[in-house]
Amino acid sequence: MTPPKIPPPEIADLLREDRVFPPPEAFRAKAVPNDPDIYEQADRDPEGFWASFARELEWSRPWDRVLEWKPPHARWFVGGRLNACVNCVDRHVRTARRNKAALIWEGEPGDRRTLTYFDLYRQVSAFANVLRQLGIRKGDRVAIYLPLIPELAIAMLACARIGAVHNVVFGGFSAESLRDRINDAQARLLVTADGGYRRGGVVPLKRVADEALASTPSIERVVVVRRDSGSIPIHMQAGRDQWYHEVMQDAPLTCEPEEMDAEDMLYVLYTSGTTGKPKGIVHTTGGYLVGTYATTKWVFDLKEDDVYWCTADIGWVTGHSYLVYGPLANGATVVMYEGAPDWPQKDRFWDIVERHGVTIFYTAPTAVRAFMRWGPEHPKKHDLSSLRLIGSVGEPINPEAWVWYYRHIGGERCPVVDTWWQTETGMIMITPLPGITTLKPGSATRTFPGIKAEVLTQAGDRVGVGGGLLALTRPWPAMLRGIYGDPDRYVKQYWNTWGSEVYVTGDGAKRDQDGYFWLLGRVDDVINVAGHRIGTMEIESALVDHPLVAEAAVVGRHHEIKGQAIAAFVMLKEGSQPGRLIVDELKDHVARKIGALARPEDVIVAGDLPKTRSGKIMRRLLRDIAEGKALGDTTTLADPAVVAKLKEKYEEEYGAN
Ligand code: WTA
User: Fold this and answer.
1) I need a labelling partner for 558 at 20 to 30 A (CA). Which of 82, 129, 226, 447 fits?
2) Pocket of ligand 1, candidates 397, 507, 518, 524: which has the most ligand atoms within 8 Å of its Cβ, to mutate?
3) 3-state secondary structure 601-655
4) pLDDT tens digits, residue range 330-351?
5) How far is residue 506 CA from its own chain's centroid?
6) 405 alpha carbon – ligand 1 mean position (Å)
């Protein structure tokens, strides 16, 4: 594989902010951990370090070896046996946490539910029985396509309880995206809902699912949660579809958990990469649970009485690791909110923080930038003094947004943890520890103890101070174990650039004189729109699927709120007669094919695309056009006039970004 390109230095310059923020003394004094020596200790004996967290979990059989590393294949806690659901639920029910709130849920319309650990135990057990009764066995895949409601966490934990592999598909994905994921994972059962709420409207999930189900031969059964009380009529197919509340009615409230090997698969989650098809990232039971448990505990300095809110949807990895497995393994009280941050008003999040007394708040930079744009008057309407720690994830946070977040949400009292990681890493990898690390706005600071990362040149040489490519150079417990059904791609994609012991992240990064990491965004063909990963190839194939489109090239460009936006350049088929609305039609087409999150911001219908003499589209130049920058080197172009014309047209239609 050719190594990806190092990002240009001007991106690094955007991230400059000189102030530093040491941990406030009051915070440091009570924080666990607050001893800086733990970094060195973990580095000296990483396996012992991870084992000490593993011992805090419940195993039905202890492991024989912490790590077996045959690059690039790792097995963690070899020989150990445990159940993830038992660790997230049963373990707490047997303690004083039994009647502690596990989930405090709020629906977008304002409906609320609180489930204690004991409630969760009973509902998860009941649904696990339902799954078994519907024929689901250990190792079977179960697809879950739900809004952010408690049943989503319940369904995942029920799968984990009986050893079924869950495959959660974000509720904003289209029928085709759902279909492809179900088919790739060969799921036998689908859990969905009639609908879910978003900005006051109802997303008709079951109808979308029905469209997908027309071509998913592996699905035998569908369980439908009633979320929307009948405002959208849905069709229930006899013999296949059943209502959740009906099958749950008589289900026994206890269910024997399946004893799992540490390396048994826990879930598959699809994410975008550099090739056309999203890949199913495989996570296993023991290492994943240890990694998410440890990072949740230390990064968020989790205490028994915290009220922890991660605003991510469970359809993404952040929701898997830091809304479900990590916090529940810690016995935390987790807040879950179904809807949009600006519904019905722009202070919805702050209203939730105040009403539930949220102490730890974890969100994405795109949300912070939206809050900034809406103005500080919205958080000011609420008492946010319960907050003691705030976090960021999903994309680089620019220093301006960091400082705004620190001041207006954190009240200049809460440490900000900017956490870098990926679907593939399963757990937070680069992050401050709030009781130890001196913060620099815009920097994710340093690796979590036991983790090893480097910035490398394209040739694979270590960069001391400066920019390059981020690589991970030591195995970690929650690392992906593979790509579902594609073992070769796992090796080629991630471990084939600098030898089989070095994991390629696909991100550019800079290291400063203190050894801090500054993440600079993707260096491959992945666009990060509002914290959501989308591959340019996926969007390009959606575009060329339109009957009028001959060729398409997609790039990411800077966007003030979303971080990046999608810019698409399309060439229509010769002789086609596009209507006036072709641009909107193409945007809708992509949204319909993939999901609204992939809708291009800009579509430029081009007479021609800039190509090299050998016919390769030069995306680099398209990026320059979309970013409103001076064009880079055009000497290799077959016809340099094409790109000049395109630049002019772009600026006419979209201005200089
Ligand atoms: C980006 C989300 C800068 C990065 C957890 C990574 C970040 C991709 C940060 C993974 C951060 C995530 N600072 N960039 N704190 N966190 N990223 O798989 O480009 O949806 O490769 O996982 O998000 O996205 P994914």
Assistant:
1) 447
2) 507
3) CEEEEECCCCEECCCCECHHHHHHHHHCCCCCCCCCECCHHHHHHHHHHHHHHHC
4) 999 999 999 999 999 999 999 9
5) 15
6) 19
